[in-house]
């Protein structure tokens, strides 16, 4: 009987997709021991937007959060999401910072590092993969899935082979917008299983309503593991429900390793947590519904919740449909990048800027300019020549790996901020988010109530 490995996402992607990563440690610390006993293959609990959100909104040290989770979770692998050379920030960092961050993540308790590049430019994940292996972690290479005129099965299989040749321990197909159909999942998983020897995992969302069907066809094709969310934090822009998949897979003759009685305990624990976020307005009912329009504009859950928050701040929520229709046009102009962080933020915010300004590219984001210059890697397709000319003029875009142009900065920064950064982890926090981390690090010795900001229960900012 084949076992299907289940990764629980409630502590990271589920809450990131539904409540913009606003769940403090105190909301889930009391259930960690039961999650550890449930029989999961892994618990995704860190990375993604959690790091930024801890510092910016929750007044928590993200490294301390990881250590506390590790102290409670003794038997189950901890898993995180890493954005290649972007780490957990929104630009490329030098190799010395990438290596130090990976090493410290593993030293502080991380087991599996799922590493992806927003453009599927594998030059950008080589250093993180190499350091994960050297530090004794599990390197999971990622195929970022999207649909466009230039993305096809052959391209994805080649990426899978290249990842295996790089030395990854497993491969994840990352369908961040929930747009992968059951047939596409079956075909891609089957093709990968025929061409690579490492385990293959699939990550999707419930946004379009395809999630459960897609997972079941992937299982038929031989997938080794899937990502699910405990049911109270599942559905909508989150992942399909853990309990439902556990029930269905066992009926089909597969093993999951999960204890359904403990799953009920976990779900009962998170029900009032969910209710709290509904009552204080952070959990918008919009993100709980099925939205088949996502098959057109391909917006992932975290991007959608952030777009709503951004427009709400500017009293322009009535422009949401217009912005959603502008997103695929911007994406085409930028050479069909997959809509995953940081590209999803860039494309979404640029689309919003185009709509709110009443003129396309009247304002061009600095991150979009950097992307066009080649600072994020090689675009999947051709960027609109007129847009390139508007941004670069006669300047040529970068051809090589952008990180090769960056000087080491870790030791230099460590000396510059030694008055308030006490550990290497502090230095890494500062390098990723200088202003936010400096404020946090300088104030952390003060009583928590004195420095807690009102944004814990307010949705603010794009970069969550």
From TrEMBL:
Pfam families: HMGL-like, PYC_OADA. InterPro entries: Aldolase_TIM, Carboxylase_cons_dom, PCB-like, PYR_CT. It is an enzyme of class 4 (lyase). Keywords: Lyase. Residues 4-264 form the Pyruvate carboxyltransferase domain. One of its GO terms (cellular component) is cytoplasm. SUPFAM superfamilies: Aldolase, post-HMGL domain-like. Coiled coil: none annotated. Its EC number is 4.1.1.3. One of its GO terms (molecular function) is lyase activity. One of its GO terms (biological process) is gluconeogenesis. NCBIfam families: PRK09282.1, PRK12331.1. This is Oxaloacetate decarboxylase subunit alpha. It comes from Caldicellulosiruptor changbaiensis. The lineage of its organism: Bacteria, Bacillati, Bacillota, Bacillota incertae sedis, Caldicellulosiruptorales.
